Amino acid sequence: MSDHQFVEMSAVQIAAGVRSGAFSAVEVVSAHLSQIANHEGEVRSFVTQMGDRALAGAKAVDEKRARGEELGALAGVPVALKDNMAYRGVETTCSSKILKGWIPPYTATVIERLESAGAIAIGKTNLDEFAMGSSTENSAFSPTRNPIDLSRVPGGSSGGSAASVAARFAPIAIGSDTGGSIRQPASLCGIVGVKPTYGLVSRYGLIAFASSLDQIGPFARSVEDSSLVLDVISGHDDRDSTSLSSKSYSHQPLNGEVKGLRIGVITEMLDGLSPDVERALNQAIESLRALGAIVEEVSVPAAKFGLTAYYLIAPAEASSNLARFDGVRYGVRVEGKDMNETYELTRGQGFGPEVKRRIMLGTYALSAGYYDALYGKAQKVRTLIANDFDAAYGRFDALISATSPTVAFEFDSKSDPLSMYMSDVCTIPSNLAGHPAMSVPFAGDEDGLPIGIQVLAPSFGEGVMFKVAAALEAAADYRPVPQWASTGK
Ligand code: GLN
Predict the structure, then answer these.
(1) Is 306 in the pocket of ligand 1 (CB under 6 A)?
(2) For ligand 1, is residue 130 a contact (CB within 6 Å)?
(3) How far apart are CA 54 and CA 489, in angstroms?
(4) What values do phi and psi take at 158, rounded to 5?
(5) Cα–Cα distance between 308 and 95 in angstroms, integer?
């Protein structure tokens, strides 16, 4: 088997081959490491590469097989990990200067679960600093490039994870989604990205951005792989008090059967789409109808206030979560003449401009005299959004929209914060409601840039969500390839 064949394989195919002995985990990992060596210079999806550990991990899987032991569902499958998840002994930075050099003494639960299923961590991926952004341009280290078109952003904040899967550095990756950070980069890179129901996946070891919104989820190049990974990482964890006690997701074979399903198209998410995105959404609607689904428009009225409510709630929580980065307990410390000056210098030099903007916004929204008018009001809007979704789910099994209003944009093209924030207008409402939602690649624009469709479902509706996504995946006749493959470079 050639390196090319290995890097094009799905996680399901890799695990089956490693388990049956058709090939070894070392062969699989080596092929992905050469893909990284060949193309990481152009893409820059990693903050830290873990090649040596990955080869050792692969060897351990192969030895386990040789001893006749049972191998897990992800045996020998390389996985890329967003660098806001702790991995014992490996630098974890959140792509921030303030955490440079921080080596966590513990490992995130999701990573432990992936590794016990046989997955092999191959690197920590780049993100917008502390997951704040939609392009990966806010990384303190360097932006990541979109493998499908290297002159464009991969989206964000999990841009490095999305790019690593699109670039065939790994068949699967893990990201976090607070307002769209898995789904939007998945859409822009032409891959699948899933934000599960809040509480389904443990957040232990995830460096918190906005704790009531953050959720960890998978990236993959197929709906089936993303469903399998969610199965592996979901389920209760005593170490995360928000993880649900009796809920986990179990992967089922997906047949894309949507006949008779009622699918709503969210009215409030139809405005402001680029013409190509609008065309793709209409095609998706037609495809679902052709498969026998009942597709109608449905209003989720409060969804239009999602962005505004999010930019009060998320910064408010961030301002409190990021207070711990003070030069005393973690990472970088810039010494001043007294304690206060040390705080000021450390935080002043350690945080980038977007993080500072969020901390200031959040501190303001929580301050005496403004708390009720800003933070309190936003919380009420959040309840309205959840209620409006519940009403829609009274009539529909699942909802759809575009994932992102546009395809991947060029670097430095959204310099004012508001235009960047608008990238998440379709993804934010499900974070506020706590519901699952995912992006599935569906079409290309006239230049071949990927367009994703978002499938949304009520809490614990992952089953129906994957079903609709699988139907769209089967109906799509679009398979994005990295720029170097399409130009034969
Ligand atoms: N782009 C949004 C933000 O900057 C969402 C980020 C995320 O989901 N982590 O807040």
Answers:
(1) no
(2) no
(3) 27
(4) -85, 45
(5) 26
188 CB near ligand 1 (under 6 Å): no
Predicted confidence pLDDT, tens digits, the chain (489 residues):
999 999 999 999 999 999 999 999 999 999 999 999 999 999 999 999 999 999 999 999 999 999 999 999 999 999 999 999 999 999 999 999 999 999 999 999 999 999 999 999 999 999 999 999 999 999 999 999 999 999 999 999 999 999 999 999 999 999 999 999 999 999 999 999 999 999 999 999 999 999 999 999 999 999 999 999 999 999 999 999 999 998 889 999 998 899 999 999 999 999 999 999 999 999 999 999 999 999 999 999 999 999 999 999 999 999 999 999 999 888 889 999 999 999 999 999 999 999 999 999 999 999 999 999 999 999 999 999 999 999 999 999 999 999 999 999 999 999 899 999 999 999 999 999 999 999 999 999 999 999 999 999 999 999 999 999 999 999 998 999 999 998 654
Q: Which of 82, 130, 134 to mutate to test the pocket of ligand 1 (most atoms within 8 A of CB)?
A: 134
Q: Which residues are catalytic?
A: 82, 157, 181
Q: Give the distance (Å) from ligand 1 centre to CA of residue 331.
A: 23
**133, 468 contact by CB (below 8 A):** no
Contact call for residues 190 and 441 (beta carbons, < 8 A): yes
Q: Is the dihedral of CA 110, 116, 119, 120 positive or negative?
A: positive
Mutate to test the pocket of ligand 1, among 83, 161, 178, 321 (most ligand atoms within 8 A of CB): 178
- Distance between Cα 133 and ligand 1 center (Å): 5
Task: Give me ligand 1 centre to Cα 258, in Å.
Answer: 31
Residues with Cβ within 8 Å of 65's Cβ and at least 6 positions away in sequence, in order, are 18, 19, 21, 71, 75
Looking at this protein, which amino acid is placed at residue 157? Answer: S
Beta carbons of 254 and 241 less than 8 angstroms apart: no
Ligand 1 centroid – CA 131 distance (Å):
6
Name the β-bridge partners of 58: none
Query: Which residues on adjacent β-strands are paired with residue 303?
Result: none
Rounded Cα gap, residues 377 and 368, in angstroms? 14
Q: Which residue ranges form the domains of the chain, and what is each CATH number?
A: 79-301+388-487 (3.90.1300.10)
Please state the atom number of ligand 1 nearest to the C-alpha of residue 158.
9
User: Tokens in use for 74?
Assistant: 């992800």
